Amino acid sequence: KKSGTALFQFKEADIVQLTIRTNGQTLELARMDNSWQIKAPQPGPADDATVSFLLNLLVTGQSERSLEANPADLKEFGLDQPSATLDIQLKDQKTHQLLLGGQNFNQSALYARIDPFATKPGQKSSVVLIPNNFLDALKRPLSDWQAKPQPTQPPSPSPQKN
């Protein structure tokens, strides 16, 4: 049994919008009715499995430990220029943010910050260790996020009268 601290306290159903920034790409996803849509960079339906994987991680993800870091130390953790930034918007208009930094010394986890905007200037920042699969969930090419085109079925032949 892994004992950890939940990263976030919201439920999957509460998430209405996600913005993921990685390597110069900004991807915006929004929940429309019961499906996820990509709003940018190329509007269209999103791939359910890819979005579900990320949502599930956000809701179930846990941090194994948390460290206090001075603002100057964030660079050590790769958090001065995060490799990925995730902005989460909830139904109640609350927002959350997850910043991914580098991996820890044995590459078993990632350094991250949660809701860094909650840190007051001069306060120490809380840096958490989170599972590596967050990196896989966020750093994907656009094509992974796009719904796969459904194979079109040829119209069923109508019974012909001979």
Radius of gyration from the alpha-carbon trace, in angstroms:
19 Å
How would you classify the helix and strand content by structural class?
A: mainly beta
Query: How would you sum up the global shape?
Result: elongated
Largest sheet: 9 strands, antiparallel
The number of helical runs is 3
Round the mean pLDDT to the nearest integer and report it: 90
Percentage of residues in strands: 35-45%
Order of helices and strands: EEEEEHEEEEEEHH
The end-to-end span amounts to 68 Å
Could you please describe the fold and organization of this structure?
The protein is mostly beta strands and 162 residues long. Helix content is 14%, strand content 37%. It has helices spanning 48-60, 133-138, 142-145, and strands spanning 5-6, 15-22, 25-32, 35-40, 44-45, 62-63, 65-69, 84-90, 95-103, 110-114, 125-130. The mean pLDDT is 90.
